[in-house]
Write a structure and sequence with these properties.
By secondary structure, the chain is an alpha+beta fold. It contains 5 helices and 3 strands. Strands 1-3-2 form a 3-stranded mixed β-sheet.
Length: 138
């Protein structure tokens, strides 16, 4: 049930274009199981559970330029469980989490209400362009 690399590329490109990222961009997306997702979330965020997506923006030394944005780790069992709980196709949830993760790599965040509203609106717009319903609607 994991989408194809072509699907991940399409979702990533949609996020980059809509977020107006005009430079060449490279990133990796790794789909993992619950055990690895939990270990990574514990190691990097101090949270002892598997989460849906982790974003690791590249940290380059000052003065070094690169098209590399960073890495995304998507936990397949969490995606499937959340999609079922939210009554949406898993493919749409994978798309949403890919877009969400790419926006994090570009520097978007949702730590405060203002930033969350901005990021969610952008996610909703990108997904609508892909033919996917608003993931934040009740």
């Amino acid at each position: 049930g994991v989408p194809t690399s072509a699907s991940f590329r399409r979702w990533t490109e949609a996020a980059l274009v809509t977020a107006r990222h005009r430079k060449p961009a490279e990133l990796s997306i790794r789909v993992v199981g619950a055990r690895e997702g939990r270990a990574l979330n514990r190691q990097y965020r101090g949270k002892d559970y598997a989460t849906n997506v982790l974003s690791f923006p590249v940290e380059l030394p000052r003065g070094v330029t690169s098209p590399l944005l960073g890495d995304l780790v998507i936990c397949a069992p969490v995606v499937v469980r959340e999609a079922r709980e939210q009554g949406k196709p898993p493919r749409n949830h994978y798309a949403h989490l890919t877009v969400h993760g790419v926006l994090h790599l570009l520097g978007f965040d949702h730590q405060n209400e203002r930033d969350a509203v901005r990021m969610e609106a952008l996610e909703t717009r990108i997904l609508a362009e892909l033919g996917i319903a608003d993931p934040y609607s009740a």
